[in-house]
Automatic annotation (TrEMBL):
<keyword id="KW-0732">Signal</keyword>
<feature type="signal peptide">
    <location>
        <begin position="1"/>
        <end position="23"/>
    </location>
</feature>
<protein>
    <submittedName>
        <fullName>Copper amine oxidase</fullName>
    </submittedName>
</protein>
Length: 397
């Protein structure tokens, strides 16, 4: 479904976003269509969606969070056995995003295992407590894995189980990865957050179906080089969470506006360090980074505010033909909660398709400020950015 240069296309697309403005106004029929739509539904808004929507100015700053590791470079593991990532972490919280594909074509396509191992490199027993755990069966449906995996991560709760490792001992981070058969072109997608109380080493490796992760870790020594033709990046990053708030209050009387994050321009990619080379690492896409967004808004003209998104990069190339996301949104017409976007089908394709996230109602005193809260992370397998569009809507029948 997605081939070698998929990520390169996705990320090049992100930097093309225009910041020009253009007047946008719903027709009465479009207004009613948004009001009738279910949360997460696709609504067709002909001649409305544009990349030239006025942008919402904002402040963004990192907030305390876990050490962050991502394994997505090389995205496609082209050799039968190899290490795709090796990183060391210190005691504390760790977020780990696994995004690797069995790309073996020579001497022929073959079934593989892709396993993430964690080794206690300290001098005392190490305890591991899982805070968030998302495992999915490997698939060529990257959009499905990305959307459902992110929604599950946002909803995940800490486990009460604690595993203990002796010094030098290694175990799979996700034991289910030992059981999965990864066929050619299938993505292994896992999202984890956990606590360790000793220094540890995390290794992602590809091996045959008969070899355990422990044995593969002892046997395999070749580490694939980073900065290949596909993949967002790999390494250890110090930024895992951002807080975003607008610097100018959104007012429905001022018309449609857009919040744009994870575009690589106004919101630069995070940087870290790649453990096997010691070189600076850049995570093109900020995948796995959590954006906690708080936006102030008011309605001095009595209108409500619809929040929508759309696949703004669909015209770039074949890799941007669909977009699927998930986020947590505060209450409005629909209850607060996590919503997959779109909800009732896999992806949204292109304009005029918009996806309804929420409709916010004005306060009794329209001039009173309210706060919209969102938890957003760049959706894996989708082109970036995924604009968040705030559209004034007339709530009167």
């Amino acid at each position: 479904m997605m081939k070698l240069n998929r990520k390169a296309f996705l990320l090049a697309s992100a930097c093309l976003l225009s910041i020009n403005t253009q007047a946008q106004q719903l027709t009465p029929q479009q207004n009613q269509a948004l009001l009738r739509a279910e949360q997460g539904a696709i609504v067709k808004l002909d001649s409305f969606l544009t990349e030239k929507t006025a942008q919402i100015p904002y402040h963004k700053y990192p907030t305390p969070g876990p050490q962050y590791i991502i394994s997505d470079d090389p995205e496609y593991i082209r050799v039968p056995e190899a290490i795709a990532l090796k990183e060391s972490v210190v005691p504390g919280a760790v977020r780990f995003y696994l995004y690797n594909v069995n790309g073996v074509k020579e001497p022929q396509q073959m079934d593989r295992k892709i396993i993430a191992m964690i080794k206690n490199t300290g001098k005392a027993p190490m305890r591991i407590k899982m805070l968030k755990y998302v495992t999915q069966k490997p698939s060529t449906n990257y959009f499905k894995l990305g959307k459902e995996g992110l929604a599950a991560f946002l909803a995940a709760q800490p486990s009460e189980d604690i595993r203990t490792l002796k010094p030098g001992e290694a175990v799979p981070i996700d034991e289910k990865l030992e059981q999965y058969v990864v066929k050619y072109d299938e993505l292994v997608h896992g999202f984890y957050e956990f606590l360790v109380d000793q220094p540890a080493e995390i290794t992602v490796l590809q091996t045959d179906l008969k070899t355990s992760g422990k044995d593969a870790l002892k046997r395999i020594t070749n580490v694939l080089p980073p900065k290949t033709k596909s993949g967002a990046g790999r390494g250890l990053y110090g930024v895992s969470n951002y807080h975003v708030n607008n610097t100018t209050v959104i007012d429905t009387k001022n018309g449609t506006s857009a919040l744009i994050v994870a575009d690589g321009a106004t919101d630069p990619w995070i940087v870290g360090r790649e453990g096997t080379t010691g070189q600076m690492a850049k995570l093109a896409g900020n995948y796995g980074v959590m954006y906690n967004i708080e936006l102030k808004w008011k309605s001095t003209d009595g209108k409500g505010l619809a929040l929508i998104t759309w696949n703004s990069r669909s015209a770039d190339n074949q890799w941007c033909s669909g977009m699927a996301a998930a986020m947590k949104v505060s209450g409005g017409k629909f209850n607060e909660g996590i919503i997959q976007l779109p909800k009732d089908q896999l992806v949204t394709k292109a304009a005029p398709e918009a996806v309804l996230i929420q409709v916010f109602k004005p306060s009794a005193n329209g001039g009173e400020e309210q706060t919209i809260k969102l938890t957003y992370s760049p959706p894996g397998a989708s082109c970036l950015p995924t604009p968040l569009i705030f559209v004034p809507v007339d709530l009167k029948p």
